[in-house]
Amino acid sequence: MENKRKRCIFISFIGVMLFLFVSFYNKLISPNGSSQPVMVSPQSKLDQWEDPGPYHVAYPRNYRFIMDDTATCRNRTPFLLLMVPVAPSDVEARDTIRKTWGSEKSVLGQTVETLFILGLPGGPDHEQQQEKLHQENLQHRDLIQGRFQDTYRNLTIKTMLTLEWLSLYCTKASYYMKIDSDMLLHVPNLVKLLLDPKTPKQKYMSGLVWWHSPVIRNPFNRFYMPARVFAEPEYPPYPLGMAYVMSLDLPAKLLQMSSQIKPIYIEDAYLGMCLQRLGLAPTDPPEDTMFLVLPKHPLSNCRLSKVIAVTTESRQQMMSYWQKSKRLEAEC
C-alpha cells in the first residue's frame, strides 16, 4: 500500500513538471501563446516593465488620450502653444490662467494658444471628479487628458505624453512651452524672444538652465537618486521644469531617444538625458532676469517688465502681476 502511494505521488510530480515545461516552452516561443515568433521592438521591450520601482516611471505604455477634442493644432495652427501640467482637481489654477496670461491669443501678430495636460483623478470621488472635468472641457475645450494616474511621481509620464500629443498634432506649429500652473508668464516677452532672428527655429530648448546639477545622494532628500540608477555625479544640462520652451521639431526627436533611456521620475533631468543622447544642449536665455524661480516679492516694475516666467506665491499675486504687466505694456 505504501509503495502504491509513493508511485502515485511520483507520477503526479512528473505530470506537474511536464506541465510547467510545456508552459515555459510555449511562452518562450511566443508571449501570446501562438506558435508564431513575435517581433519585439525596443519600445515594446520597455513596455514589459511591470514595476518601475521608486526611481523610474512606467513609460512607455499605451496610456491613450481619453480627452483631447480641442481644435488647437487641428483646425488652427498656433505660432506658440502653451501646455500647463495641472492636477485634475485644481480648477482654480486653470481658471486663473484662463483669466490672465492664458487669455492672450494674439501677441505681436502671432497666434498663441493655451492647453492643460492632466491624468486621471484619484481618491474615492474620482468618478465625480472625472465628470466635472468632462463638463469643464465642454465649456472650454482646452483639456488634454491621458489614461494614467496623476501624481507628482508620474510627472515624467505627463511630460512624455505631452510630447506624444505634440508630435501627433502640432508639427506645423513653431514653438511649445511647458509651464507650471503657479507661474506668471509674460507672453509678449516670450513671443519677442522667439521672433528674434538670433533664436533658432530648430533644435532649440531654453529656460532657466541647470548646467551642473548635482545628483542628490542623500536618501532623506525628495530628489534622492542612488548611484545604481544614475552613476554620474551630475545630470546633463537641462532647463528647470518650472518653464521651458522648445522648437516643435524636438518632441519627436526626444521621444525617439526616450526608447533608449529608462525614464527616471525627475522629468526635467530626464529630458536633459534625452537631449544629451541627441547630441544637443539647452540654450541660456539672453538675460538671466527672464526666468526667475525664487524671486524676492514684490517684483518691481523694472523686473516685471523684463521677466518671461516667474514663480508666484498665490493666485491673487499672479492676477495682480498680470494686470500690472498689461498696464506697463500700455504705458510703453
Automatic annotation (TrEMBL):
GO cellular component terms listed in the entry, alphabetical order: Golgi membrane
EC number, as in UniProt: 2.4.1.-
GO molecular function: N-acetyl-beta-D-glucosaminide beta-(1,3)-galactosyltransferase activity
Primary enzyme class: transferase
Membrane-spanning residues: 7-25
Pathway annotation from the record: Protein modification; protein glycosylation
Assigned keywords, A-Z: Glycoprotein, Glycosyltransferase, Golgi apparatus, Lipid metabolism, Membrane, Signal-anchor, Transferase, Transmembrane, Transmembrane helix
First-listed, main subcellular location of the protein, grouped into a coarse class: Golgi
Keyword Transmembrane helix: yes
InterPro entries, per the entry: Glyco_trans_31 (IPR002659)
BP GO annotations: lipid metabolic process; protein O-linked glycosylation
Location(s) in or outside the cell: Golgi apparatus membrane
Protein name per its UniProtKB record: Hexosyltransferase
Organism: Betta splendens
